[in-house]
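RECORD TYPE: inverse folding
INPUT: structure tokens
STRUCTURE:
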């Protein structure tokens, strides 16, 4: 029977030892008999998204897991987010990743994600979409998952060579940054920076009095009164993974960033309104959709975001419980797929230690399970257990290629 593969991605699952778990990580402390079974029956290791010591974002981590070399192909978060909301960039467009944020009257960021706003963002985005800037450039603004959104500047002589207004992770309590040209004096970047600043200023005026925000403030919620911008980039074509290896692939996912990368890689997107890219997602429903897809596709990528969300919120207990929910759902998938010639890869895009509340360069534990893998002596899925695994220390590109090699779709180097 033709082999197929599931790649299970637990976003930000890697962690560091915690006192509250008696020196275990959330993954080590979790009750996860199915993941442990895969580790015990498979080959394990530690994976660096790119190489040791390189801390990556979710976008770069996933580009690497989808087989791309981000050092060569990364062109900014903006175009990925645009792809993620099914928006087609034109030549000359400059796309930014945007965050709805809460900023006080002094320009200080109170909440970088407007309290992880989930409702009303379509209305807020609609109020900004189509804004005509002073030189005729049009600002196209589309909502993405939760606090995420996309700004596209469409006009003439624009450049992606501009800085971010978003100071980045742990920005709360600091000032919004001015958007500047990365090439001081160069006309196109200077123009683009001043247009992005104009958009930001006018967007703030509109957002401050928007009914969605008035309502949020009544409820004591942080208003989404500012648009933070980062990751400017332009349209770029990358060769789909599905074309390179002649495979049929699908991605079960809710987060727009991963949708963008998976779409560029040639994957069919399988999603549902019940999939939230958060802790309250339909864990079981996603696993079921993946199990069904394995009957039709050579490769199915299944992405869970909850582990990363809990880490950013410094909630170790939630992280552990989310892992346990995924494990329990995985048990059902294993039952349902017994008749398939199935390989399973378990991995992550980066570590997000609860103690750091941010991504770190700690390598992530991985498993490769299947009928004929070289089983090692590791019997548990965990950061320290997998350090003794047979895959040793592998890169994300190497991990994907190893999985694809079991599917017999890779090509021979040399004659
Ligand atoms: Zn991530």
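DESIGNED SEQUENCE:
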């Amino acid at each position: 029977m033709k082999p197929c593969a599931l790649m299970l991605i637990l976003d930000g699952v890697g962690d560091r030892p915690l006192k509250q778990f008696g020196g275990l990580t959330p993954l080590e402390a979790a009750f996860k008999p199915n993941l442990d079974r895969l580790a015990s029956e498979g080959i394990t290791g530690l994976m660096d998204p790119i190489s040791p010591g390189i801390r990556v974002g979710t976008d770069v981590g996933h580009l690497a897991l989808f087989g791309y070399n981000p050092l060569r192909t990364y062109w900014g978060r903006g175009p990925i987010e645009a792809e993620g909301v099914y928006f087609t960039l034109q030549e000359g467009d400059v796309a930014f990743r945007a965050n709805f944020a809460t900023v006080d009257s002094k320009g200080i960021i109170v909440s970088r994600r407007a309290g992880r706003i989930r409702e009303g963002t379509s209305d807020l985005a609609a109020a900004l979409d189509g804004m005509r800037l002073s030189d005729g450039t049009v600002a196209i603004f589309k909502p993405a998952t939760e606090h995420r959104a996309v700004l596209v500047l469409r006009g003439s002589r624009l450049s992606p060579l501009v800085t971010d207004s978003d100071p980045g992770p742990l920005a709360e309590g600091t000032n919004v940054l001015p958007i500047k040209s990365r090439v001081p004096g160069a006309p196109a970047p200077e123009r683009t920076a001043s247009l992005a600043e104009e958009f930001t200023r006018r967007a703030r005026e509109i957002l401050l009095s928007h009914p969605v925000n008035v309502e949020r403030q009544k409820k004591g919620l942080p208003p989404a009164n500012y648009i933070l911008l980062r990751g400017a980039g332009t349209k770029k074509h990358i060769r789909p993974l599905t074309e390179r290896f002649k495979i049929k692939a699908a991605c079960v996912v809710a987060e727009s960033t991963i949708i963008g990368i998976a779409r560029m890689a040639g994957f069919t997107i399988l999603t549902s309104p019940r999939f939230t890219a958060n802790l309250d997602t339909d864990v079981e429903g996603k696993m079921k959709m993946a199990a069904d897809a394995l009957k039709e596709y050579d490769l199915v990528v299944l992405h869970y975001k909850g582990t990363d969300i809990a880490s950013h919120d410094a909630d170790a207990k939630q992280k552990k419980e989310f892992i346990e929910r995924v494990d329990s759902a995985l048990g059902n998938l294993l039952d349902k797929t017994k008749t398939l010639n199935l390989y399973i890869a378990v991995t992550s895009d980066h570590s997000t230690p609860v103690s750091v509340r941010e991504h770190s360069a700690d390598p992530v534990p991985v498993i490769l399970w299947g009928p004929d893998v070289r089983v090692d002596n590791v019997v548990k899925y965990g950061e320290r257990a997998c350090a003794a695994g047979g895959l040793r220390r592998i890169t994300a590109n190497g991990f994907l290629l190893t999985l694809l090699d079991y599917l017999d779709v890779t090509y021979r180097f040399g004659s």
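NOTES: The pocket of zinc ion is lined by residues 11-12, 58, 61, 308, 349-350 (CB under 6 Å).
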